[in-house]
Amino acid sequence: MWLGVGEPDRRADMFGGSGEVRVWSLLRGSLPPFDCVLGCELDPGGHVGEHVQDTCTEVVIVTDGHGQASVSGEPITLRPGIVVSLPLGEALSLTNHSQTAPLRYLIVKARGSG
Fold this sequence. Notes:
By secondary structure, this protein is mainly beta. It has strands spanning 9-12, 20-25, 34-42, 47-52, 57-64, 67-71, 74-78, 83-86, 91-96, 103-110.
């Protein structure tokens, strides 16, 4: 899906979830304070289990599809253009509500004190 950056890293059942997430590393080289920029694609009906942001603050930017995020128990409806902010210590889970199309999103991680 993310053109010109090679084959994705394929991750199954992330954090106790279900389905596959394909992950492309989009940031070339070093650009502090940013740790990485990832292009992600979650399988139709897939789920990324809850996990805590313990080393980097993070933003998730939805580019295609629809679903739901949970940030420390608070639901957020996902659709293109939605940005989910995750300070250090917050817990995130993601669900793709479509049974036919992937949920696509960018993750931007930055190191810092939160």
